[in-house]
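Supplementary Note 3. Input sequence used for the single-chain structure prediction.
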Amino acid sequence: MLGMVKNSLLSTVEAWPYRLLSKGEKDQVSYEERTYEGGKFAAVELVGKSFDEASKEGAVKLLKYVGGSNDKGERCCLPRGAWRVFVVEACQFQDSPPCPTDESIKIEERQGMTIYSTQFGGYAKEADYVSYAAKLKAALGSDAAYHKDSYLCNGYDPPMKPYGRRNEVWFVKE
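The predicted structure, written as discrete structure tokens, is reproduced below.
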């Protein structure tokens, strides 16, 4: 238990590597344009649940997977995402990720993408993501070409981390 608390408070999260293309700010909303390479992810899709319920249930399933509930019995990756909850496989497992023991978790290959992102702190709920998505959409205006009908919600920290939390909303560039 002490180790889990120490890791939650003091450890850093391995983020999906990206290349920063540009930064912007409008109406007190800072945002970045980034490009990400493709990679392997563990994903669980939860149907018929609210965003907040799906985030919690999906996070629990994937935390078990990353904690060693897989065919290799190894800790292997770090959490991010919601609704269609997924985790990026750690760099050392990109070539051969462990197979989940929970059949609802699937390993999938995702294509690279370019995104517009804004960041915020705290324990994010659905209302926070909706609010920051609206702020980012307003800051980007009509000049930016991106998929306006959906966005990705990203959380980077373990549930027990009480401060310095990092959350992001992403719009995928067209």
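The longest helix spans residues 51-66. The CA atoms of residues 46 and 57 lie 8 Å apart.
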